[in-house]
């Protein structure tokens, strides 16, 4: 037999290299390339006889197709993020930093589902059954009929799942502990994780079980990260949050059965995660309305509006190269706004350090936040506090124009609901709701904004 060929696989993104390199060209991570034997349980192997399939006509399928059958947890923040509940026969990956609360969330989901009469198996590869039970007790879930198993060997897990009555939903916590006889590398490596996940997904598809996989986000590259299996599963959700803050956000990044821009908001407390039905009120709860450099952004995440404070501090620098420190927003967008402020408004920040923070550890991905960021920057530089009852939204282009964004009505309605009586928004915004008492200040370009703040 030919000598087994090994490959060099990036543990972060799964890219294959034919020699060892220090930096993965595909994802840019350093020291994540490890040598592995890729012959890991994929496909049939020698001697397998090919089976002929029979394609069916698309038209013959019409009529009896319904919505994907879903398992609702009743935890509405979780159901919203999954697009209406877990789908039978599908695999969902829930990724996140270690300690962020993935196991807590899933134990609560398991308990809720079990109370609704579903059969749930929670497979823990990280903690012993006693430990998982202890957590369940803390979460008030110890009296439910969730079945626990502490296994890491994929073949054993599959045997456990096949025994007795078929489960409705299986939780695998976590994929990094999986190992399979089909692959030869060490547990936690790309080959092992892939082979294990593939076998579990196959089980899910064959039996109609919903499979929930937990994956830790890893930085050091010794174990494979969730990105390796992102393309294998039907939906990917990330559980995010700041250790210093209590709330957590479940963000959908891929969903074959639903929308991908939804978020679910939770608050971590002494007895587990609590749903936050009004995130805006939470994000704005610690506002200091009188200080310069703070602007409230009226954002929209998926189907829901979220108001959050953007904080900027602009201070003269003592360094040769001024500092740009950003938490919760994109650094290249900040660079762009600084450049536009300089080029079109004469606002020079080359001799200033710029710090930008989204309050409460929240992360904004919408370009609509441009206007709020620019307002916070100008307000801090000028030392002028912005009106406390005003919200900001709009996209800024390189020409300095302020562009309309989607969901104007939704943003304005949420602002009104939370007591904001004014809004600065792009000129030519459509779908403005009628009858709101909100004072609207429409601007067409960034210089208009600077003039507005300077005059306030
Ligand atoms: P955990 O769910 O174990 O995180 P993960 O599975 O993502 O690694 O949660 C870990 C953190 O959550 C831990 O620091 C303790 C905290 N926690 C609470 O604050 N309240 C609770 O009720 C529970 C169960 C955990
Ligand atoms: Mg855990």
From TrEMBL:
<feature type="domain" description="RecA family profile 1">
    <location>
        <begin position="67"/>
        <end position="217"/>
    </location>
</feature>
<dbReference type="GO" id="GO:0016787">
    <property type="term" value="F:hydrolase activity"/>
</dbReference>
<comment type="function">
    <text>DNA-dependent ATPase involved in processing of recombination intermediates, plays a role in repairing DNA breaks. Stimulates the branch migration of RecA-mediated strand transfer reactions, allowing the 3' invading strand to extend heteroduplex DNA faster. Binds ssDNA in the presence of ADP but not other nucleotides, has ATPase activity that is stimulated by ssDNA and various branched DNA structures, but inhibited by SSB. Does not have RecA's homology-searching function.</text>
</comment>
<dbReference type="Pfam" id="PF13481">
    <property type="entry name" value="AAA_25"/>
</dbReference>
<dbReference type="GO" id="GO:0000725">
    <property type="term" value="P:recombinational repair"/>
</dbReference>
<feature type="region of interest" description="Lon-protease-like">
    <location>
        <begin position="353"/>
        <end position="456"/>
    </location>
</feature>
<dbReference type="GO" id="GO:0005829">
    <property type="term" value="C:cytosol"/>
</dbReference>
<dbReference type="InterPro" id="IPR020588">
    <property type="entry name" value="RecA_ATP-bd"/>
</dbReference>
<keyword id="KW-0547">Nucleotide-binding</keyword>
<keyword id="KW-0238">DNA-binding</keyword>
<feature type="binding site">
    <location>
        <begin position="96"/>
        <end position="103"/>
    </location>
    <ligand>
        <name>ATP</name>
    </ligand>
</feature>
<keyword id="KW-0378">Hydrolase</keyword>
<protein>
    <recommendedName>
        <fullName>DNA repair protein RadA</fullName>
    </recommendedName>
</protein>
<keyword id="KW-0234">DNA repair</keyword>
<keyword id="KW-0862">Zinc</keyword>
<comment type="function">
    <text>Plays a role in repairing double-strand DNA breaks, probably involving stabilizing or processing branched DNA or blocked replication forks.</text>
</comment>
<dbReference type="InterPro" id="IPR004504">
    <property type="entry name" value="DNA_repair_RadA"/>
</dbReference>
<dbReference type="InterPro" id="IPR041166">
    <property type="entry name" value="Rubredoxin_2"/>
</dbReference>
<dbReference type="InterPro" id="IPR014721">
    <property type="entry name" value="Ribsml_uS5_D2-typ_fold_subgr"/>
</dbReference>
<dbReference type="InterPro" id="IPR020568">
    <property type="entry name" value="Ribosomal_Su5_D2-typ_SF"/>
</dbReference>
<dbReference type="Pfam" id="PF13541">
    <property type="entry name" value="ChlI"/>
</dbReference>
<dbReference type="GO" id="GO:0003684">
    <property type="term" value="F:damaged DNA binding"/>
</dbReference>
<keyword id="KW-0227">DNA damage</keyword>
<dbReference type="GO" id="GO:0008270">
    <property type="term" value="F:zinc ion binding"/>
</dbReference>
<keyword id="KW-0067">ATP-binding</keyword>
<dbReference type="InterPro" id="IPR003593">
    <property type="entry name" value="AAA+_ATPase"/>
</dbReference>
<comment type="similarity">
    <text>Belongs to the RecA family. RadA subfamily.</text>
</comment>
<keyword id="KW-0479">Metal-binding</keyword>
<feature type="short sequence motif" description="RadA KNRFG motif">
    <location>
        <begin position="254"/>
        <end position="258"/>
    </location>
</feature>
<keyword id="KW-0863">Zinc-finger</keyword>
<dbReference type="Pfam" id="PF18073">
    <property type="entry name" value="Zn_ribbon_LapB"/>
</dbReference>
<dbReference type="GO" id="GO:0005524">
    <property type="term" value="F:ATP binding"/>
</dbReference>
<dbReference type="GO" id="GO:0140664">
    <property type="term" value="F:ATP-dependent DNA damage sensor activity"/>
</dbReference>
<keyword id="KW-0346">Stress response</keyword>
<dbReference type="InterPro" id="IPR027417">
    <property type="entry name" value="P-loop_NTPase"/>
</dbReference>
């Amino acid at each position: 037999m030919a000598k087994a060929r090994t490959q060099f696989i990036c543990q972060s993104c799964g890219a294959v290299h034919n020699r060892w390199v220090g930096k993965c060209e595909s994802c840019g991570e350093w020291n994540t390339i490890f040598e592995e034997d890729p012959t890991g349980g994929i496909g049939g192997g020698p001697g397998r006889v090919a089976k002929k399939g029979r394609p069916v006509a698309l038209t013959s399928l019409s009529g009896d197709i319904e919505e994907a059958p879903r398992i609702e947890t009743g935890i509405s923040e979780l159901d919203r993020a999954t697009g209406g509940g877990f789908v039978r026969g599908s695999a969902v990956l829930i990724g996140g930093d270690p300690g962020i609360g993935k196991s807590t969330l899933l134990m609560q989901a398991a308990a809720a589902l079990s109370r609704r009469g579903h059969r749930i198996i929670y497979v823990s590869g990280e903690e012993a059954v006693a430990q998982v039970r202890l957590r369940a007790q803390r979460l008030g879930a110890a009296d439910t009929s969730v079945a626990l198993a502490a296994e890491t060997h994929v073949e054993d897990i599959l045997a456990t799942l096949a025994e007795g009555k078929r489960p409705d939903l299986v939780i695998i916590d976590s994929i990094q502990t999986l190992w399979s006889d089909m692959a030869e590398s060490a547990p936690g490596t790309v080959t092992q994780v892939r082979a294990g996940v593939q076998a579990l997904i196959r089980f899910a598809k064959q039996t109609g079980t919903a499979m929930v996989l937990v994956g830790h986000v890893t930085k050091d590259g010794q174990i494979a990260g969730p990105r390796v299996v992102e393309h294998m599963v039907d939906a990917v959700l990330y559980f995010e949050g700041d250790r210093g803050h209590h709330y957590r956000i479940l963000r959908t990044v891929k969903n074959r059965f639903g929308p991908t821009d939804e978020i679910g908001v939770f608050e971590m407390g002494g007895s587990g995660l609590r749903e936050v039905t009004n995130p805006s009120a939470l994000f704005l709860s610690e506002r200091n309305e009188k200080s310069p450099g703070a602007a409230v952004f009226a954002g929209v995440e998926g189907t829901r509006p979220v108001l959050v404070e953007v904080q900027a501090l602009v201070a003269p620098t003592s360094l040769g190269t001024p500092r740009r420190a950003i938490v919760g927003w994109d650094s290249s967008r900040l660079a762009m706004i600084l450049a536009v402020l300089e080029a079109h408004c004469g606002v020079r920040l080359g001799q200033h350090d710029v710090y930008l923070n989204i309050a409460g550890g929240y992360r904004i991905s919408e370009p609509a936040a441009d206007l709020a960021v620019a307002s916070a920057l100008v307000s801090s530089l000028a030392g002028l506090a912005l009106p406390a009852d005003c919200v900001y939204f709009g996209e800024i282009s390189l020409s300095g124009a302020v562009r309309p964004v989607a969901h104007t009505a939704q943003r304005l309605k949420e602002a009104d609901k939370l007591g904001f009586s004014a809004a600065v928004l792009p000129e030519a915004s459509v779908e403005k709701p009628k009858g709101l008492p909100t004072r609207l200040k429409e601007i067409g370009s960034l210089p208009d904004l600077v003039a507005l703040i300077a005059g306030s």
